[in-house]
Please model this.
Amino acid sequence: MKSLRLLLLFLVVAASAAGGEREESVFLFQNRRVTIEVPEKLGFASSKNERGIISVRLGHPKEKISLEIAFLPDPEGRFSTARNRKEFMNETFRDYLADSVEKAMQFEELDPKVGAGTYCIFTDSALVGRAALPRGEYRQTTTGLKAWPGVVAVFTLFSNDTTSREYRAVMAMLRDSVIEASAPAKR
Model:
């Protein structure tokens, strides 16, 4: 785990030196390719775990945000409906509720260019009002799903607020990017 953090830190520093938005591609299962427009100053790393799940991590050199996306096959289109996305999120992310200010999931639709998506935001009650945060800890956790035919992207975004330029850029990336290279946009 420590070597993965060092790799991510290296990629973040290298990306911040380069500056500007850039496109990255990741090959998923069945030779499907996803493109991601990585926002300015964010580092990018991808990996494949022992079960074959492809993940992408984005991070900021000053730890303003941290994002992880895991791509899973969804051949039956289970996550094409808002109800199924919300049920999955309730099962998967309910542990965040115990320490959150919200105490209930408040689902919002992502409204992506391609496919469908749902997310919710949790605020860590222990970090509210604190000027200085422990290294690697964040006030907000935004969790969600973005689905399109045959694929679901499960994401977790850590941030210290939901109004910063970095947060807005990552949310825009999730809406407008993180799409299959050949997927048509909504009309």
Remarks:
- The chain is about 20% helix and 35% strand.
- The helical segments are 2-18, 82-93, 165-176.
- Residues 1-18 have pLDDT under 50 and may be disordered.
- The first strand starts at residue 22 and ends at 27.
